[in-house]
Amino acid sequence: MNEIIFSKDDPYIEKISKKSQEVSLVATGDETEVMIHKIQADTKFILFPGESESLMEFFYVVDGMLSTTINSKHIFVNENEYFNVKGLKESIYFKAEANTTLLCVSSQLQFHYLSNEISELNVIVEKVSEKDMYTQEHNLRLQDYSIRIAKELKLHNKTLYNLLYASLFHDIGKINVPIEVLNKPGRLTKEEFDYIKKHPEDGYDLMKNSCIQEVGEIIRQHHERLDGSGYPHGLKEDEICIEAKIIAVVDTYDAMTSDRPYRKALSPIIAMDELKRLKGIHYDEKIVDIFEQILMKEEKI
Ligand SMILES: [Fe+2]
Ligand SMILES: [Fe+2]
Prior knowledge:
Layout: E1 14-17, E2 21-28, E3 33-39, E4 44-47, E5 56-63, E6 66-70, E7 73-77, E8 82-86, E9 92-96, E10 100-106, H1 111-131, H2 135-152, H3 157-169, H4 179-182, H5 190-197, H6 199-207, H7 214-221, H8 242-256, H9 268-277, H10 285-297
Helix pairs in contact: 2-3, 2-8, 2-10, 3-7, 6-7, 8-9
One fe (ii) ion binds near residues 138, 170, 171 and 251.
């Protein structure tokens, strides 16, 4: 039987929604998928190499605008323009310059591979933010600054991709921390702090069977400090990966400059002074320097 489906009925097969992005799978063939991807202005996303070399993906900008940088050239993709990628070897990093709708056609089935596990992880992060109101905005700020630092350091696209997810999921292990401990206004007892100290390892466990399992290692290390004084494993210097070192700096800054149940927010200048005081002791010098420059450009400090 022939079948014809009109978009008027909004007949998506499956949809993944995040705060800033929505991907609807609208048609599938034996080995083809057609998706509509809605992205809010200022959201970043990454195209990453598929499992197989022969994967071809086509993207048409229905409305809005995207930008990307390829070989140090800044490129805009406007409404009614398109691009396609085949045999991608490195990830490509895009930003939506305005609210953007993309039509995507993929020569292989990608949607399920991408969506199921990541949307399950998103559900857990949403539960964490119900316990701790500060989480959602904090994760997005962390994502933004981490990516900017990584770009300044000219790190590989794969690192940007890892950071994109590691920043969103870094505290996912807090799902196991009791709400009274997360929101306690006073000092934590040793027992309570032991709960907090488990969250990087619990985060690693939650990620380890997902399609972004590399991100788990970053999450496990985001409270490690250069001199070995961090947790959970007391790793030092080069034992800590660069992504975790970046997250450590921005995470600490953002925590210091936000109101928390146990204290009021500190000013950006005081927070940066604290990071500088611990430069080379807890935090990577170069990362702190680059972060300071970014904040100066923003006139935060
Ligand atoms: Fe954390
Ligand atoms: Fe955090």
